[in-house]
Write a structure and sequence with these properties.
The complex is a heterodimer of chains A (114) and B (112). Helix content of chain A is 0%, strand content 50%. Chain A has no helices and 11 strands. In chain A, strands 2, 4, 5, 6, 9, 10 and 11 form a 7-stranded mixed beta sheet that branches. In chain A, strands 1-3-8-7 form a 4-stranded antiparallel beta sheet, with no helix packed on it. Chain B starts with a strand and ends with a strand. Classes of the chains: A mainly beta (114), B mainly beta (112).
Chain lengths: 114, 112
């Protein structure tokens, strides 16, 4: 059984560009959540996908969008990058979206926007 | 709006000592309170979790104490070891699903 994997591990972009981050969920998990973790802060919830449908969204603008595929892997897309988007982006998968289902995190993608 | 407040931001403890990290929440709809441990370059990993109908939960050297009326919960690490040096996050989720609201984190250093 493999854990949650994310790609790429690091990424450098310039302001105004677009970026796509990828996540493969743990085997048997149908729910993927994305979080943004700024340096020295706790992760902030971006959105969640459950069985290919968006299942909740945090306080992030529409230029943050996502997708979940039939194999339950997921993408996070960020358009019109801003300097403040520089952060560690974490993906977490869970068996389902129930309130007490444990989320298992990947190692993250570190994004730097110049 | 920070719905989960965590303190202290950093903590230094001698090997063998007790590490205590505190969290307070505002949203009474929260009903699941996990603690995550994060090492540099890694994603957070679940350490221990508690439901609000339980006042204390212990797993090995780690104990969560929960005070529902005060809307506070804390993590105690007994016999702290240098390998426990990491950043610890409290979190909460509610009846809308398992989306987590995290505290700001506590950077723990255990000195040998």
């Amino acid at each position: 059984e493999t854990g949650v994997t994310q790609s790429p591990t690091h990424l450098i972009k310039t302001r105004g560009q677009q970026v796509t981050l990828r996540c493969s969920s743990q085997s048997g998990h149908n729910t993927v959540s994305w979080y943004q973790q700024a340096l020295g802060q706790g992760p902030q919830f971006i959105f969640q996908y459950y069985r290919e449908e968006e299942n909740g969204r945090g306080n992030f603008p529409p230029r943050f969008s996502g997708l979940q595929f039939p194999n339950y892997s997921s993408e996070l897309n960020v358009n019109a990058l801003e300097l403040d988007d520089s952060a560690l982006y974490l993906c977490a998968s869970s068996f389902d979206a129930g309130a007490r289902e444990t989320q298992y995190f990947g190692p993250g993608t570190r994004l730097l926007v110049l | 709006q920070q719905q989960v407040k965590q303190s202290p931001q950093s903590l230094i403890v001698q090997k063998g000592g007790i590490s205590i990290i505190n969290c307070a929440y505002e949203n009474t709809a929260f009903d699941y309170f996990p603690w995550y441990q994060q090492f540099p370059g890694k994603g957070p990993a679940l350490l221990i979790a508690i439901r609000p109908d339980v006042s204390e939960k212990k797993e090995g050297r780690f104990t969560i104490s929960f005070n529902k009326s005060a809307k506070q919960f804390s993590l105690h690490i007994m016999d702290s070891q240098p390998g426990d040096s990491a950043t610890y996050f409290c979190a909460a989720s509610g009846n809308a699903g398992n989306m987590l609201t995290f505290g700001g984190g506590t950077r723990l250093m255990v000195k040998p």
